[in-house]
Amino acid sequence: MKYLKFLIPLGLFLVLAGFLAVGLNLNPREVPSPLIGKPAPGFDLTMLDAPDQRLKRDELLGKVWVLNVWASWCAPCREEHPLVVELARRKLAPVYGLNYKDTRPAGLAFLRQLGNPYEASLFDADGRVGIDYGVYGVPETFVVDKQGTIRYKQIGPLTPEVIEKKIVPLLKELNV
User: CATH number for the 31-174 domain, one of 3.30.2350.10, 3.40.30.10, 3.40.30.120, 3.90.78.10?
Assistant: First the structure.
């Protein structure tokens, strides 16, 4: 009985240490999104480069598309931008930008400087659409199927490995 009062706290400590060890080995970029398999949230936003023109999510139904959430103030967005340009050049699906919590002049300057890979870049000044999409922070990228269902979410910058092993095969599968 004398050892029991030491074994219970030791057992609890080992269980908690086990949970901590498992948690520390998880990749924070692979946080499962509750939106995967669900309809992409609706939006009706102005274009970054044409404030008098709007685009609605429903206009994209019937085609596979990629939504890249970015901002001019975001250093990782700058790093991933050449990969977004290359993905758009491959024409596997149109790539749309969501300029998140930015200013129109800064967003336009970013695209002038680094190139504009987007079919259209939407202006989400207050971040409401980003919030609807569950954006944790920029950059984030979504793949949406022809029915308007989110099929993939990349948290953080795209990498060549993510594009080649996850996004490209998914786009090819969805475009069949």
Answer: 3.40.30.10
Tell me the C-alpha distance between 152 and 66, whole Å: 9
- Give the pLDDT score at 15: 73
pTM: 0.83
